[in-house]
């Protein structure tokens, strides 16, 4: 979704409003219109993400995600297939209905592998990641024991 027309329209409205003022007011409005572009794009993208979360909550068996490719958001609707038997679900007691947003940075190769796994499971990347985190929290990921007075550790870790 190209946001340029919306960002440009907002800048034009700002300049038109300032046209009633002095030359200094008009110059300030032009400067503000040019420098507000990143903030406007972020605000519109945040509004789209909130809308996508609301739509997803209202849909049965589908999810709406907002992906950022370059500077512009892309809306992706995914019809979810029934969950595979091996896919862990979040424990029912943990879901209070609220949704938290995080920014996750992954190496490009890992992101590609996760996208492929989500596609294979027939779910969105977001759903796949939620299930992966829930599965990772179902059992301890490492056991560390301190042995003696030194700095030697024993145990295992799973990745």
Automatic annotation (TrEMBL):
- Name the InterPro entries for this protein: Ribbon_hlx_hlx, Uncharacterised_HicB
Leader sequence range is none
Bias-annotated ranges (Low complexity):
80-91
Q: A Pfam family matched by this chain, by name?
A: HicB
Origin, by domain of life?
A: Bacteria
Region: Disordered; residue ranges are 80-99, 137-159
In which residue ranges is the amino acid composition biased (Polar residues)?
138-147
Name any Gene Ontology BP term: regulation of DNA-templated transcription
Protein name from the UniProt record: HicB family protein
